[in-house]
Design a protein that fits this description.
Distance between the termini: 76 Å
Family: Belongs to the CDC26 family.
Pathway: Protein modification; protein ubiquitination
Region (Disordered): 25-85
Helix content: 55-70%
Shape: elongated
Organism: Mesocricetus auratus
Strand content: under 5%
Radius of gyration: 27 Å
Largest sheet: none
Protein name: Anaphase-promoting complex subunit CDC26
Structural class: mainly alpha
Length: 85
């Protein structure tokens, strides 16, 4: 295998200006999106996402993915069916 010296990358003024413009554009989009989400969540989901309550966080995740857990009953018929002994 042949070894070669690492290629040197030079940063030009045009590259820096392009990076800064793209970064500012992304920041403004992100800020607008946060403003829209902040106004749109008047039912309290935004505040629940910031809370440290694990049940509300788990509930938010379940709602987001569409999972609706069914409660488990602990009687024998639910575990073994309707067997007659």
């Amino acid at each position: 295998m042949l070894r070669r010296k690492p290629t040197r990358l030079e940063l030009k003024l045009d590259d820096i200006e392009e990076f800064e413009s793209i970064r500012k554009d992304l920041e403004t989009r992100k800020k607008q999106k946060e403003d829209v989400e902040g106004v749109g969540t008047s039912d309290g989901e935004g505040a629940a996402g910031l809370s440290s309550d694990p049940k509300s966080r788990e509930q938010m995740i379940n709602d987001r993915i569409g999972y609706k857990p069914q409660p488990k009953s602990n009687n024998r018929t639910s575990q073994f069916g309707n067997f007659e002994f």
